[in-house]
Amino acid sequence: MLILGIESSCDETAASLCEDCRSIRSSVISTQIEEHKKYGGVVPEIASRRHCENILDVTRQALSDAGAALADVDGIAVTYAPGLIGALLVGVNFAKALAFASGKPLIPVHHISGHIAANYLSHKKLEPPYLCMVASGAHSHLIEVLSYTEFRVIGRTRDDAAGECFDKCARAMGFPYPGGIHIDNAAKSGDPRAVKLPHPAVAGNEFDFSFSGLKTSVINMLHHAEQKGESISKNDLSASIQATISDIITSKTMAAAEALGYKKIALAGGVSANTGVRAALQKACADLGYDFYMPELNLCGDNGAMIACQGSYNFLAGIRADESLNAVATLPIDNI
Ligand code: KG4
Ligand code: ZN
Fold first, then answer.
1. Per-residue pLDDT tens for 81-107?
2. pTM of the model
3. Per the structure, how many domains does the chain have?
């Protein structure tokens, strides 16, 4: 079984061919980061225009790298939600046209389920059920992965996503967009106990979390230091931010695992590339003898392979879309 996956939900145009659910035959990613950097964040209209220009070449390249023709694929999977609406529409319309022209089935994929599926590509033996923390630039969710195609959200951020918190703190510190990786690099030479940062408490659902209090406190701290003419070590502040985010992610995940009886834990989304988050969750799981999974670094951020992989499982489960498929900017993962 060969599935073509297409991703265009944010600032990466990506296409990939995945064979028998777990094997990547090709993966092509055209990133727009350099262009959006000038504006300090993704400019939606520019993102849509670049997807429009690049999507055909990226898909042709993915087919050619895999030594396959469109006629060889069993289905065309595409991210249809959630994401920037104009960006998603490019991928959805392109995939619809391909499916129409080739007569191949069209398979809708939820972007977050794609991030989770990145773990299947890195760990051939991983099977549901398990508990997954998905932390990306736009989402932070604690999810029960009940089967390859069934999900239950048990906790979520009340405000900013973890990646958004990394990026906004990084911006306040003068790092370029996207700042998560810069905080990660600076943290390597910093002391994680040097700066005391809040661990925002959340009332209500015990598995919900919050990152905006942390972000605000970092921004205020930098302003006060600037007004007083003092300087804060970027390395120490980065290490402290990273340790706090890692701690929030780890404590919520482990509390949910214990309460719900999960001994199999996974991490996913762009923030799963973070050195501190990876190490903290891995250690917490090792201490309790739990199995822990995280994607290889090149599969943490947005890519087509994760969409092709999840598309393969959706295909096997009989999930199809017709020509009325539309893009959806906001859609809970447990709605599919
Ligand atoms: O999953 P993703 O590629 O896009 C969304 O679906 O949102 O995640 C992008 C996010 C950005 O906020 C980026 O700064 C963050 O993932 N990120 C990191 C690291 N690498 C990417 N955050 C912290 N440390 C990293 N090494
Ligand atoms: Zn993503």
1. 999 999 999 999 999 999 999 999 999
2. 0.98
3. 2
